[in-house]
Design a protein that fits this description.
Layout: H1 2-18, H2 39-57, H3 60-73, H4 78-89, H5 93-107, H6 113-126, E1 130-137, E2 143-146, E3 149-153, E4 160-163, E5 165-173, E6 176-185, E7 190-195, H7 201-209, H8 217-251, H9 256-293, E8 294-296, E9 303-305, E10 309-313, E11 316-320
Parallel strand pairs: 1-7
Antiparallel strand pairs: 1-4, 2-3, 2-5, 5-6, 8-9, 10-11
Helix pairs in contact: 1-2, 1-4, 2-3, 3-4, 4-5, 5-6, 8-9
Length: 321
């Protein structure tokens, strides 16, 4: 294959350099060092010669890049033969098949019989190394990739011709996370693979934007009520301790000043206990009112009123819900 490819490269180079102009304004010169005066033709020639050099050195990737650049500048069908040969050596069988087919179609009657039979034999060999693969997705307009190269947009009416071997399929859509799948492609077979996207990213974003409603407002008043109740109980206990201390000191005939001090402390603690107890009662009532009259909206995180009332009157408590 290498000898055939080297001979083909040399023959194509000679025929391209001596060929009549395709898209160029002047004929290509017989010698590579002679400029034609047409910048596009000269640039195409330079890329072609670089491609030949890279191929001679064994750098097939660089050779293909240079030849493709030359073809883009001056799309003569002769370059497709070279591109098909290089792609074959790279084991890019689907690309080689495409180049060889285009070579025969674009060359038409200009391709001599010997070369045509040669290319047709290669195409026959390639049929067993290329498969028809249909790629489907559950999202319309998703971009489809094979081994990092974009091959179309879903839904695709025609299957993709892929070289035999392990291939990485990938689909991308703006509203979904990309999905990838490794598949084994067998030459000569027709296969169908589906790339299924997950949930819509916009729906996930809306769900993430929902504000955590947090605790019900009644929770905070309930906690405060508990704190005040504990404080009231503590103060009442300390007041009772001081009251007992007062009685003990009175039995021991303590001085009047010491008794007055104990009495003042007892009264102060009792007063604080009464205030805390009253606050706890008010807090408990507020908690009950909030529980009965306020709903917490889980979507907005805000508190909204209920159509209910709590009426406190002399000797009675009435609630409407």
């Amino acid at each position: 294959m290498m000898r055939w490819l080297a001979t083909g490269i040399g023959l194509a180079l000679a025929s391209w350099l001596a060929a009549p102009r395709a898209l160029a304004q002047d004929e290509l010169a017989d010698e590579p060092s002679v400029e034609t005066g047409d910048p596009v033709t000269d640039e195409a020639r330079a890329h072609f010669l670089k491609g030949v050099d890279f191929y001679t050195e064994g750098d097939l990737n660089a050779a293909r890049v240079e030849l493709e650049r030359a073809y883009a500048l001056q799309p003569t069908y002769r370059l497709l033969f070279n591109l098909g040969q290089v792609a074959y050596e790279q084991r890019e069988y689907a690309a080689a098949e495409r180049y060889f087919r285009d070579y025969l179609e674009q060359g038409g009657d200009e391709v001599d019989d010997t070369r045509r039979r040669e290319v047709e034999r290669e195409l026959e060999r390639l049929r067993g190394r290329v498969a028809n693969v249909q790629i489907t997705t559950n999202v319309a307009a998703a971009k489809l990739f094979v081994d990092g190269r974009e091959v179309g947009t879903a839904p695709m009416n025609e299957p993709v011709r892929l070289s035999a071997g392990r291939r990485l399929l990938r689909a991308e859509s703006p509203d979904h996370s990309p999905v990838s799948r490794e598949v084994d492609v067998v030459g000569g077979e027709d296969r169908r693979f589906e790339l299924r996207f997950g949930p819509d990213l916009r729906s996930e974003a809306r769900a993430a934007d929902v504000i955590d409603p947090g605790p019900h407002p009644a929770l905070w008043t309930g906690i405060a009520t508990g704190v005040f109740a504990l404080g009231a109980g503590g103060m009442a206990f300390w007041a009772s301790v001081d009251d007992r201390t007062y009685d003990d000191e009175l039995e021991r005939r303590t001085s009047r000043g010491e008794l007055d001090a104990i009495e003042d402390r007892t009264k102060t603690k009792a007063l604080v206990a009464d205030v805390l107890l009253g606050t706890a009662v008010v807090g408990a009532a507020a908690t009950l009112v909030l529980l009965l009259t306020v709903d917490h909206d889980p979507e907005s995180g805000e508190s909204v009123g209920r159509a209910s009332r709590l009426v406190i009157g002399p000797g009675s408590v009435r609630g409407t819900f």
